[in-house]
Amino acid sequence: MASECHSPGRPVGGVRKPPRQRARPRPGRRRLPTIMDFCLFIDHGPGADAARLQALLEAPDTARRLGGIPGLSSALAHTPARALDPFLAAAPPPALVLQLYFDRLLALETAAARGGPLGALAGALAQAGGEPGAWETVLTRRYPVPQPRPADATESWCSYLVAYEGPAVDAHAWMHHYLTQHPPLMRQLPGLRELEICSPLEAVAFLPGRRLRQLQRNKVAFDSPQALDAALHSPVREEMRRDFTAFPPYTGGVSHHAMLTRAMSLRQDAQAGLRGGAPRD
Questions:
Q1: Are residues 53 and 95 in contact, defined by beta-carbon separation less than 8 angstroms?
Q2: Which candidate, 136, 65, 132, places its Cα nearest to that of 98?
Q3: 210 contact partners, CB below 8 Å, separation of at least 6
Q4: Cβ within 8 Å of residue 165, ≥6 positions away
Q5: Could you give the residue ranges of the DSSP H alpha helices within the chain?
Q6: SS3 of residue 36 by DSSP
């Protein structure tokens, strides 16, 4: 019997099979693209001496010290601001949260090694603040937003810093839910300029103060406290709150703080450590 040959993709018996279709991703389930950095947070609580910490940050020597840290790409200083979250009672904010960004993990670990420049900086902050403070290393996911801050913007802005102490019953299940469900909602906040989600990172670091390992930190940023306040009273915030009630089980507190954010100069010849005037209305 003679055999029949068919070229690939050619219908057999005159019947063409329908093309195979790919399954469409379920809404809200697909992970959004991100840019990743390595970050160090240095926190000083409500009881710290805010005036002396501010004076230290504004000192030219602080800018020169930061500018001399290899691999440090940017530095932000967060100090207390005011905004009203309709779902939460107000709590005393930290006097200072310093956020330092590195492109490479090795650069962060080198700067945080024994005798390294970050240890000297953390020690100076502890002395100025009158308390040892706390610190944490994290992997920071930066998400694209519809209207980001202009790259050449120089004024200060307002950030909403959130921290989940944890632990979760299943940390991976908790993170999977959060990363797939919450960012698509957060990106819809009116006036949003930045969105970051920070996961714990076991970096090798030796700094004075108490080391933290929280379940997660978040940051959303706006032009001003007024813009943040408007976003917190939007329908999107209500949707986020509904998703919050669906989180996988976890324990520990959750903190939310409105903070004024300013970029710190990394120039070694800088005359001042902080840049940026009052936020825009």
A1: yes
A2: 136
A3: 132, 133, 134, 135
A4: 214, 215, 251, 252, 253, 254, 255
A5: 50-58, 60-67, 105-111, 117-129, 171-186, 225-232, 235-244
A6: strand
Residue 177's nearest CA partner among 90, 101, 250, 253 is 250
In sequence order, the 6+-apart residues with CB closer than 8 A to the CB of 15 are none
Do 184 and 204 meet the contact criterion of CB atoms below 8 Å apart?
A: no
The C-alpha atoms of residue 118 and residue 115 are separated, in whole angstroms, by 8
Residue type, 195: L
Model's pTM, two decimal places? Answer: 0.85
The tens digit of pLDDT for each residue in 29-88 reads 566 778 899 999 999 999 999 999 999 999 999 999 999 999 999 999 999 999 999 999
Distances (CA, A) of 67 to 53, 117, 118: 19, 11, 12
End-to-end CA distance of the chain: 85
- In the chain, the amino acid numbered 53 is L
Cα 263–Cα 269–Cα 274 angle in degrees, nearest 5: 20
CA dist 52 → 3, 57, 128, 129, 133 (Å): 90, 9, 5, 6, 14
Give the type of residue at 139: L
pLDDT digit string (tens) for 252-280? Answer: 999 999 999 999 988 766 555 565 655 55
Q: Residue 228 has which token pair?
A: 């943040």
- Rounded CA-CA distance 177/171 in Å is 10
Q: What is the dihedral of CA 109, 111, 113, 115, to 10 degrees?
A: 180
